[in-house]
Specification:
With 141 residues, the chain is an all-alpha fold. The chain has one domain. 74% of the residues lie in helices and 0% in strands. It contains six helices and no strands. Helix 2 packs antiparallel against helix 3. The N and C termini lie far apart (40 Å).
Length: 141
């Protein structure tokens, strides 16, 4: 399995990882170690889920250049097992941190924060959609 991410996707996951890391470090510095662990577990589940969803959607919806488009039973089984694993990871996180569920939810929203940050960044640069970014053009020039 190779995750050939587009630059926009890489940026989203980089921002999500950085936000989760900074939040966990801040909580750890305040002595809230269980909350930091819960936030980290939630962020890890969200980031891995996002990466896997990107891979599945990339194969199903928009074939990337030089990407294999094998859609066979192995692909379907792998996709189902991935989400079964993520469901178990989320369930295990809630069972492990029953009093820190809000922090788990905060970690699960790390990818949403990454998407929002990338959207605001693109809006500040004057881009209205990803097609303009891929071509390297800026409509306001």
């Amino acid at each position: 399995m190779s995750l050939a991410l587009l630059p926009q996707e890489r940026r989203v996951f980089r921002v999500a990882s950085l936000a989760a890391l900074l939040a966990a470090l801040a909580l750890g510095a305040l002595g809230k170690f269980r909350e930091a662990a819960a936030l980290t577990a939630g962020a890890a589940v969200a980031i891995v889920s996002g990466l896997w969803l990107s891979d599945v959607a990339g194969r199903l919806l928009v074939p990337r250049p030089r990407a294999s488009t094998r859609l066979d039973w192995k692909f379907a089984l792998r996709a189902l097992l991935r989400y079964a694993f993520l469901g178990l990871a989320a369930y295990g996180s809630v069972r492990l941190f029953p009093d820190e569920v809000p922090w788990l939810l905060g970690g699960l929203s790390a990818v949403v924060l990454g998407v929002l940050a990338d959207g605001f960044r693109g809006g500040a640069a004057g881009r209205s959609g990803p097609e303009e970014e891929e071509e390297g053009t800026n409509p306001r020039e």
